[in-house]
Every structure is written in structure tokens, then in C-alpha cells.
Amino acid sequence: MNLAISKKKSFLRYEFFVLFILVPLGLFVVVPTPVLPFLWIVAFYCYLVLIKDKKFNKKNFLRQELVSKNIKIILLQFFGISAFIALFIAIFMPDMFFSLIKQNPILWLAVIILYPLLSV
User: Fold this and answer.
1) What angle do CA 58, 120, 27 make, to 5 degrees?
2) Which has the closest alpha carbon to 23: 35, 13, 6, 11?
3) CA–CA separation, 102 vs 56, rounded Å?
């Protein structure tokens, strides 16, 4: 193994450790700030790294034909998992089933509207 490959693997290990171990621990333990702005910054950094990578085919970034091809599987998984979660809560925690909409409909509406916008 040559030195360049060894350095790249070391960097990737370091990057993995920092991004997936140290940063989440730091956010959990030390930093009492909102997480979403930090995640947006990290996502933007990842986007920049991906776009600057000469090996990455930019045509593959958003491929509508793959989404169209796999939409049935995606929707089946989504509705199957959603149904399982709903049944689980209805059976094992019936007092919690639809409790947010019953107790605080304004908060429920805010979650329904804002979550799709902010989670991406």
C-alpha cells in the first residue's frame, strides 16, 4: 500500500470519527443550542465536498428516473411502517394514540407543517 492511499484512509477514519462520534457527543453533552442550524451547515459542507470531488458524476446527484422507478417500493415501505407504528401505539399505548392532536392541536399543526420543511 502506498503512502497516499494510507494517508487518505487515515483521513477518512478521522473524518468518520469526528462527524459521527465527536460531533454528536459534543452536541449532546456540551452544546445547548438548536441542532437544525448545525445540521444545515454540516449538510452544506458535505454537499460542497461531494461537488468538488472529481470522481463524482454530478449527473447522478438527483436522478428522477431512479426515484420514479423506486417510488412504489418507497411508498410501500412508508405506509407499511406507518401502519405498524400506528397499530403498535393503538394496542400497547392507547392513551397516547392521537394524544398530541387531542391535547394541543396548534402544536400538532405546527409539526405537520414545519417538520417536512425543516427536516430535510
Assistant:
1) 110
2) 35
3) 48
pLDDT in tens, 68-92: 888 899 899 999 999 999 999 999 9
HEC string of the chain equals CCHHHHHHHHHHHHHHHHHHHHHHHHHHHCCCCCHHHHHHHHHHHHHHHHHHCCCCCHHHCCCHHHHHHHHHHHHHHHHHHHHHHHHHHHHHCHHHCCHHHHHCHHHHHHHHHHHHHHHC
What is the tens place of the pLDDT at every residue in 15-59? 888 888 888 777 777 766 666 777 788 889 988 888 888 888 877
What is the separation of C-alpha 99 from the centre of its chain, rounded to a whole number of angstroms? 25
Please give the model's pTM, rounded to 2 decimal places: 0.46
Distances (CA, A) of 44 to 36, 49, 52, 83: 12, 9, 12, 34
